[in-house]
Write a structure and sequence with these properties.
The chain is an alpha+beta fold. The chain contains three helices and five strands. Strand 4 (109-115) and strand 5 form a beta hairpin.
C-alpha cells in the first residue's frame, strides 16, 4: 500500500487519515496503542519529508504476519532528496527538531538507506495478537506493550533528548 505525498504541509493530515484507514483495513483498531504510535510516526516522517526536502514523497505501509499471531508493521517514506536525515538536539524552548528522537524512541527498529536518486527512511513496530483466553499468559517482550510514554525516551541512541512533556502532548490538531 502506498500514498503519493506532495511537498505541502497539508499532506501530513491526509497521510495520517490514509494510514488510519489502512490499519483499520488490516484489523488494527484506531484506539489500539500500535495504531496510535504508527499514526504519530507517519506524522513525523511525512513532516520531515515535506519540510526538509521540498520534494514529493511516497508513504508505504505494510503488515507482515509472523508466528503465533505476531506481526510487524513497516512504515517507509521515500523522497527524491539525497540529504541524509540528521538528528538534532533542540533546546528546551524549541518547538521542533524532535522528530527523529521520537522515531528512535517509539519504533522497534528504524533506519534509512539510499534509494535510487533519493533515500528511504523506514521504521518497524512489532505487534502480538493474543486470543481472549490467552490474554493473561505471558507475551513476548516486544509484543503487547502499553501505550508509549513520552518522557525519557531512552530505548535508542537519541535518549539524551529528555522529556517530551513540553512538546504539548504531541497533539497535531484536527485531522
Amino acid at each position: 500500500m502506498q500514498l503519493e505525498i506532495r511537498p505541502d504541509p497539508a499532506e501530513v493530515g491526509r497521510a495520517r487519515r490514509w494510514a488510519r484507514s489502512r490499519l483499520a483495513g488490516s484489523g488494527i483498531a484506531a484506539d489500539e496503542p500500535l495504531a496510535e504510535t504508527l499514526v504519530l510516526l507517519v506524522s513525523e516522517l511525512v513532516t520531515n519529508a515535506v519540510v526538509h526536502t521540498g520534494c514529493p514523497a511516497v508513504l508505504r505501509l505494510s503488515l507482515s504476519g509472523g508466528p503465533a499471531g505476531a506481526a510487524t508493521v513497516r512504515l517507509e517514506v521515500a523522497d527524491a532528496s539525497t540529504r541524509a536525515p540528521v538528528p538534532r538536539c533542540p533546546g528546551d524552548e524549541s518547538t521542533g527538531g524532535r522528530g527523529l528522537a521520537l522515531v528512535d524512541g517509539l519504533a522497534d527498529r528504524w533506519g534509512w538507506c539510499p534509494d535510487g536518486v533519493g533515500k528511504r527512511i523506514w521504521c518497524e513496530l512489532d505487534r502480538c495478537v493474543t486470543a481472549v483466553d490467552a490474554a493473561e499468559s505471558a507475551v513476548p517482550a516486544n509484543c503487547g506493550r502499553a501505550a508509549p510514554t513520552y518522557e525519557g525516551l531512552g530505548r535508542g541512541a537519541y535518549g539524551a533528548y529528555g522529556a517530551y512533556g513540553a512538546y504539548g502532548g504531541l497533539a497535531y490538531g484536527a485531522v
